[in-house]
Each structure stands twice: as C-alpha cells, then as structure tokens.
Specification:
6 helices, 5 strands, binds adenosine-5'-diphosphate, Rossmann fold, 167 residues, 41% helix, globular, alpha/beta
C-alpha cells in the first residue's frame, strides 16, 4: 500500500501526552507510524537521544503499529530511506500553523511525492509542549497528568536535586 508507513518527526524532549494523542490518532489511520526523533547536535536537549527513545518506546508500547526511530539530516531523505511518503505533524494553535505550513511547503518543494498530514490536537493538550513541561517541573509545578509516568520519573531523577527547597 502506498501510504502504509507514516513518519511522525520531532524533538520529543521529552514525549508528552499531547504527542501520544497525535500518535494514537495517526495509528488509527495508517498501517504503521514511526515516531522519529530528530538528532540535532546544534540544539541543546534536556534528554539524550537514547533517553528520549526509551521514554517514547515505553509510552507507546500499547500501540502495536507505532515504532520509534531517530534520524539526522534532512527529514525528506529519511522518509525516502524508510520508504514512507507521509509526514505527520500535530497542530495545537494557530501559532503553530505558520511555521508548520512553511515547513510543509519546503518539504514539498524538496520531495513532491511526500505529503504532510496535520492532526489537530485535543483542546486539553493545546497548551502542552515539552518545554513548558520542563519549565513547570523545574519550578516545582505538578506535571503528572501531562506526561507518561516513565517521563515523570525521569524528570524527577534529572531535576529533583535542583528543585527549589531540595538542596
Ligand atoms: P519540533 O521541535 O519538531 O516541533 P516537538 O517534539 O516539539 O518537535 O513536536 C513534534 C510534533 O508534535 C510537532 O508537530 C508539534 O506541533 C506536535 N505537538 C507537540 N505538542 C503537541 C500537543 N500538545 N498536541 C498536539 N501536537 C503536539
């Protein structure tokens, strides 16, 4: 089938319930979905690629047709290697749209055979991003219901000693 594998790319630093929602929706539409972590040596990340990979794999283990991978370089080159013609992206708000639209058009210019497929988030995740989760957690805010439990545990391991009032 032509559109059997869809690639869901992103930083996933770390994966949140908003990302999981998009992966679930995509898994109901496509035969296989590969959540693919962008390895960007120029961008400082909180978690290593291996940690992000493990957290995503744990969080998505209930979805048999969702796999986790990672890639470096141009997204369209990765899709061609994977023999995929669909990029999945999530939209939270109008503010996401401008950047996503630009990227989708650039990717179409680079690879006309590849289509970007947008999935609109559930309103309850519209405020959620990896960076807000990290920021809220670091200042002691409750993020348990925003991320899977494996991510919460690793956030604690990573930041607990630095939380206000804990040393
Ligand atoms: P990137 O750095 O590529 O934006 P992210 O990990 O921040 O990587 O996001 C990956 C994808 O998931 C993007 O399409 C983003 O819009 C989407 N996304 C992030 N958070 C949410 C959310 N709360 N609901 C729906 N989609 C989301």
């Amino acid at each position: 089938m032509k559109r059997a594998l869809a690639v869901y790319p992103g930083s996933f630093d770390p994966i949140t319930n908003g990302h999981i929602y998009i992966a679930e929706c995509a898994s109901a539409i496509f035969d296989e979905v590969r959540l693919s972590i962008l390895v960007n040596p120029q961008k400082r990340s909180t978690f290593s690629v291996d940690e992000r990979h493990t957290m995503a794999q744990e969080a998505l283990s209930g979805l048999p047709n969702v796999t986790v991978g990672h890639f470096e370089g141009l997204l369209v080159d990765y899709l061609r290697q994977q023999n995929s013609q669909v990029i999945i992206r999530g939209l939270r708000a109008v503010s996401d749209f401008e950047y996503e639209f630009q990227m989708a058009l650039m990717n179409r210019r680079l690879a006309p055979e590849i289509e970007t497929f947008f999935i609109v988030t559930d309103p309850k995740y519209s405020y959620l991003s990896s960076s807000t989760v990290r920021d809220v957690f670091q200042f002691g805010g409750p993020v348990q219901d925003m991320v899977p439990c494996g991510v919460f545990r690793r956030l604690r391991e990573r930041f607990l000693s630095r939380l206000p009032g804990t040393g």
